[in-house]
Amino acid sequence: MNLSLLFLGKFLRHGTAIASLAPSSPWLSRATVRNVDWDRARVLIELGAGTGPITRELVDRARPETRLIVLERDPDFVRVLRERFEPRPNLEIIEGDVRDLAAMLKDRGIDRVDNVISGLPVPSFPKDLQRDLIRNVSQILDPAGTYNQITELPWVYLRFYRSFFYEVRFAFEPRNIPPAGAYYCRGVRPID
């Protein structure tokens, strides 16, 4: 199956529910997880994994004892992810909605995660879903942990993420087509 065609088809049918026209490049995938402390990470969660380019980085770089949770809502993407990456003892791919994130993790005995890596098109979400997502992240993210958000619009959403987090840095990746990057966010601000 051509993953790029699957991704493009989803984008054309679902618009802003899919963050991109094509899967992230290996350079962008590496940039998105560049700040993860692989020696200390116990639990990592990926939101909106799509066809799995960032999942590949997580699987390749995480220690065997690091628990990887991948959440994807689209059943076709979930099938692709399971075909590509399962079975692995430290990886679980969940078909579900980000609104149920805290409950899904609680059901798995997870209180806190060290890093949240997001491929979701958060700025395109309705305001209530944006707040729900960040509220869920604040419930599960370790105070020293980071929320990493991939973007294909470099620097455009810096102010947007600063409205939700106290500390926001941006890493630019010019080799992706189109040029893109990742926000590294720490310290969730209180949400109304």
Automatic annotation (TrEMBL):
Give the NCBIfam families listed for this entry.
Answer: ornithlipidmtase_OlsG (NF041658)
Name this polypeptide is given: 16S ribosomal RNA methyltransferase KsgA/Dim1 family protein
User: Mind telling me which InterPro entries this protein's record contains?
Assistant: KsgA/Erm, Ornithlipidmtase_OlsG, rRNA_Ade_Mease_Trfase_CS, rRNA_Ade_methylase_Trfase_N, SAM-dependent_MTases_sf
Which Pfam families does the UniProt entry name for this protein? Answer: RrnaAD
Locate the Ribosomal RNA adenine methylase transferase N-terminal domain: which residues? 28-176
Keyword Transferase listed: yes
Write out the entry's keywords from A to Z. Methyltransferase, RNA-binding, S-adenosyl-L-methionine, Transferase
Against CDD domains, the record matches this protein to: AdoMet_MTases
UniProt keyword annotation of Methyltransferase present: yes
One example of the protein's molecular function in GO is: RNA binding
Q: Which domain of life is it from?
A: Bacteria
